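Moderator note: this is an archived Q&A kept for reference. The question asked for a predicted structure of one protein chain; the sequence and the answer are reproduced below.
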Amino acid sequence: MRKINLLYAMRFMENEGDDIEEFESILNELSLVGTNDIIPNLCTIFEDEVAEPSAGDNLIETIFYVAKRNNLEDGLYKLALSIPKMLPHAQFWAERIHRTLLNSKDLVASYDKVIDKLGSSDKQTIKEILLSIKDDDPDLILKTAWSLIEKLG
């Protein structure tokens, strides 16, 4: 948890000693030893105002790596539960996570199974994110997201 707190403190890269290499090093370490239980904590780090966009991309990679290394469905479930807590301060990153999901058949197949386990407000939040992506990028949404959107109700 100390490392997560350090990442959280560094996310804006505005304090003396904050640097992207250190941020990435901590993420690398967490990706190798972390369990799916760290995924909700990692989601707290996302901010749309982050100064270093690569930090957010590396954070997404870490989340998916941890989930794949442990139990993918369990990890994606924890991620799905964390998405509403990212709003509105990390809307861009919530969409970016879903764009990444939509571009991976393995991730989408597992996420599809996870959706059934969500409560109605979590489903609604994710549906709104997917519809927003659809408005921006209809080609990405084609069949994959439509099945998710329909399942979300």
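Archived answer notes: The first helix runs from residue 2 to 10.
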